[in-house]
Amino acid sequence: MNKESRLKATINQRLTELGERERLKELLRAKLTECGWKDQMKAHCKEVIREKGLEHVTVEDLVVEITPKGRALVPDSVKKELLQRIRAFLAQHAA
Amino acid sequence: MKMEDMPLSGPDNTKLEALVNDIYSELVEDACLGLCFEVHRAVKQGYFFLDETDQESMKEFEIVDQPGVDIFGQVYNQWKNKECECPNCKRLIAASRFAPHLEKCLGMGRNSSRIANRRLASNNNMSKSESDQEDNDDLNDNDWSYGAEKRGEHRKSQTSPRRSKTLKHKNEFSPFQYNYNAGINYEMLGPDEVQSFLTTVSSFHGRKKSFQSQRCPQHTDEQRMAVRVFLLGPSAPVLPEADSVAVPESFDIPDGQALMSRLQWEDSPEISPSDSASSKASEEKSGSPFPIKRRTDKEPVSVSLTGTNHSDSRSLSTKKKKPKLTAPSISSIYDDLN
């Protein structure tokens, strides 16, 4: 376990250091907007807000409602591409 | 920092995969959080629902997603298959081809004169072999179109079968076609010809080869001499010969600065201090402003100095209408003359 967590920490550090994390973030954001995920989620947000009331909605409310649905709604192609990139990074910098 | 070697086999592989998935989940969660913050801010700042209006408008301008129709619901190639009757030739033309057809049919577009010229050139070439005297004369008169023959031959091979029809009409010059042929066929000139033509043109302006003289026909030499004396003082140089090739750029004005200051009559806001002193003293001196000039000249004085700018001649001619002078430099001119 210790080895794993150390490994994980190291990799995360590597990701951040080399700027790969930022790049992956941007890539993901762009792809999600492109495929319409963002608009879908926004529509869902509108429902939540209407439900809770415009004045009283909090960040927590939104997070709780949005995140699980968001995770589920990511298209397969986007998911696959990201996983691919992460694997490639690991192969290059870990092994 | 060197990593421990990760063998990609058995459980370790899954660990690696698990790691990959972990990283992926983090990234996705990050994106979701980002969206939440964005939305929350929009809600609190009040611009989240800005894109929504009343129900009616929403329904009216809803995005349409049907085949054959654009997102507004309009059919976009509605007029594609319609045909229009040309008012000139009475034929039925497809709508998208109607405007170009009208251009050619009425002879009024940018290209229609070009095409007409080309047709005529090819006509002339075709008829040359038949040695039609009139047509040859026409061609000979047109000195500048020496490129037209070359071009005509090339064009003939490329023309569509329709153009050969014009041969039937070779003796009927319709008015608009004939007008375009009388003169230089700019479009027919090859690149070398264009270059030589342009250099000849520039030498027109530079050295005035084709004009006999650069003098303006409105004035006589006497008038010119008088103006020169008036402006440059009694020691004015003699007029250059009419036929000499004078380059305007090298025209030497003996005292350019004084000349320019003299030429700035009423409309000169900047008055040099030395002049203003004398102006007050001798302002009453000027009775009629041009004692010498104005009595002899009936025409407005236009200075035929090729190097000066137009405002000078304009300001001089306006002098006639406004005899009251406020220009300070008049006194110095009178001193010279007297």
UniProtKB/TrEMBL annotation, chain A:
UniProt subcellular location: Nucleus, Nucleoplasm
TM region positions: none
Family matches, as Pfam families: EnY2
Keywords for this protein: Activator, Chromatin regulator, mRNA transport, Nucleus, Protein transport, Transcription, Transcription regulation, Translocation, Transport
GO molecular function: transcription coactivator activity
Assembly mode: Component of the nuclear pore complex (NPC)-associated TREX-2 complex (transcription and export complex 2). Component of the SAGA transcription coactivator-HAT complex. Within the SAGA complex, participates in a subcomplex of SAGA called the DUB module (deubiquitination module). Component of the nuclear pore complex (NPC)-associated TREX-2 complex (transcription and export complex 2). Component of the SAGA transcription coactivator-HAT complex. Within the SAGA complex, participates to a subcomplex of SAGA called the DUB module (deubiquitination module).
Reported function: Involved in mRNA export coupled transcription activation by association with both the TREX-2 and the SAGA complexes. The transcription regulatory histone acetylation (HAT) complex SAGA is a multiprotein complex that activates transcription by remodeling chromatin and mediating histone acetylation and deubiquitination. Within the SAGA complex, participates in a subcomplex that specifically deubiquitinates histones. The SAGA complex is recruited to specific gene promoters by activators, where it is required for transcription. Involved in mRNA export coupled transcription activation by association with both the TREX-2 and the SAGA complexes. The transcription regulatory histone acetylation (HAT) complex SAGA is a multiprotein complex that activates transcription by remodeling chromatin and mediating histone acetylation and deubiquitination. Within the SAGA complex, participates to a subcomplex that specifically deubiquitinates histones. The SAGA complex is recruited to specific gene promoters by activators, where it is required for transcription.
Family: Belongs to the ENY2 family.
Listed name of the protein: Transcription and mRNA export factor ENY2
UniProt source species: Oryzias melastigma (Marine medaka)
Name of the gene this protein is made from: ENY2
From TrEMBL, chain B:
Keyword Nucleotidyltransferase listed: no
Identification of the protein by name: Ataxin-7-like protein 3
Zinc finger (SGF11-type): 84-105
Any one annotated GO CC term: SAGA complex
Family: Belongs to the SGF11 family.
Composition-biased stretches (Polar residues): 116-128
Xref: PANTHER family: ATAXIN-7-LIKE PROTEIN 3 (PTHR46367:SF1)
Compartment(s): Nucleus
Sequence ranges of Low complexity compositional bias: 270-280
UniProt keyword list: Activator, Chromatin regulator, Metal-binding, Nucleus, Transcription, Transcription regulation, Zinc, Zinc-finger
